[in-house]
Design a protein that fits this description.
Elements: H1 3-18, H2 23-30, H3 41-44, H4 48-73, H5 77-103, H6 114-124, H7 128-156, H8 160-188
Helix pairs in contact: 1-2, 1-4, 4-5, 4-6, 4-7, 5-8, 7-8
Amino acid sequence: MNLKASKIFSAVGMAGLLACGAGALLGQASGGSTPQMDSGSKKMMKSPDTAFAIKAAQGGLAEVKLGQLAVEKAANPDVKAFGQQMVDDHTKANDQLKSVAQGENMTLPADLDAKQQAMYDKMSKMSGADFDKAYVKDMVKDHEEDVKEFQKESTNGKDPQIKSFATQTLPVLQSHLDKIKGIHAKMGNGSSM
């Protein structure tokens, strides 16, 4: 199998694994140009860089969708402003990652995974102070995880384009983490969230 086909199959296989049973995602990731993979696709997923790119793409999509909810449903003006920043910054990062993926002949997922969709559905039913607390708590946790993953990729990545994307995006994620921790501290007034 040539390198291009291997990357496509890796992306398709990983997208299917990350879909957590959302079979539609595998069909989208394959784009119809490659055969759908069965359970053997797990063995074909060799590239941590591809896995990182797929996870980053889904995480970026979740940040945008949840940010849109924050703009609409948050009561706290800092939370609304942070939500808008998530929409702006993660839309830009998602576009950069799409460009990298196209250059690598990788197909990224176009939808949230099952866990992210469940979080979105839960938060979409909230508003005001309840929404603010849940959103801020989720954003702190999510950005702590993102910073770790992007640090790992920027240090250990083998694919130069994906590694470069991680390195360029990391300072933005770190600033998001600092900002949301500040909002969390301001809102918390000493209470746990």
